[in-house]
Amino acid sequence: MNVEFVQKKYEKIIVKCILKFVNPEGIFLYGGYGRNEGSWITGKDQTLKPYNDFDILLVVNKHLSSDLLVKIKKDIKSQISIRWIDLTQIKVKKLKKLKNSIYNYDLKNASKVLYGNKKLQNLIPDFKANEITLKDVDVLFKTRIWTLVGCFEDKSFENISGPKSMFFRNQMAKAVLACVDCYLILNKKYNFSYKKRVEFFLNNSEDLEYFELVNWALNEKLRPQECSMSSSDVKKMYCRVSKFFIKYFFIGLSKYYNCTIENEKDIERIYLYQPRNFLVRKLKNIMSGSGDFNAYMTILQFLCVIYLLNNNVKIFNKIKLYSKKIGIYEKSFENIRTKISNLRIS
40-42 and 85-91: which strand pairing? Predict the structure, then answer.
């Protein structure tokens, strides 16, 4: 079945669901599906179905209530049977004021206006890929570290098959492609296309040992697969992907923060005590009470990855200590990891 035809069907459903509740100035579809590189799986009836979340941006004149956004998301999910819907909003006048970043660059160059004024996209400044700053490396690290923590729906490193294996492999693919993004940002060669980004990495990187993994990640991202994986296979893939992730983000974060980052202590230091982060953390504590929570969540997720790699008792003790700071009082690692994972996406 033709992917383009199927995607248009889902796009019409999304628009119809939104218009039941509100008539926005515009509806943007961004992310993988916005650039026609979304994840598709073949159902039991041999029809193509979306696998990853749809990223939707409503352009409005007046902000909608959070309750209304929840209702819209719930209706869309009921119609297209998908796990996640990322639904956000922005005022028309703010489109002109957007700053250069991966998110805004992609919104300008790799999104679709499904409904409303097609010229809304023209309001977004013409960003240049080579001017995307190293701040996006930091953003990528904080958002994609979850793929290495939440990739196990139950216990870590168990035999998996069916939907569980598809979910695990898809999260591993996202982690690998985040490394590719980090590499491109460092080289000022970011591109909105997954395929172009992978092509640049393969043509320019000297990390030959990861080429096969990067190729696999692209294919897995576009066409997620179910397969049976033994516990040893799961652990082998997880370790390889995690080490790739840590290598590239240590390089990227070191350049962004202008210091050497090479272990978990350095991660703790930059997110708790680096002057800029320290100030932001304290301000957010005053404004919303979220400063400490966000910092400890980032650190805890990284520590979980390190513990999964080496089962170090000292690391586990730190995890237990920091988890209490965000209201988690579990004693087992798996319970702590699961709660951290759920908190991160709640």
Answer: unpaired
195 three-state secondary structure: helix
Q: Pick the last residue of a domain from 127, 157, 187.
A: 127
Q: Which residue has the tokens 């390089």?
A: 251
Question: What is the average pLDDT value for the chain, to the nearest integer?
Answer: 94
Domain count, the chain: 2
pLDDT per residue over 70-99, tens digit each?
999 999 998 987 778 899 999 999 999 999
Which residue range is the domain that position 40 belongs to? 3-127
Choose one of 127, 157, 175: the last residue of a domain.
127
Residue 257 identity: Y
DSSP one-letter string for 124-174: S----GGG--THHHHHHHHHHGGGGTSS-SSSTT--B-HHHHHHHHHHHHH
| Cross-sheet strand order for the sheet of 54-60 | 85-91, 54-60, 26-30, 112-116
CB 35 within 8 A of CB 108: no
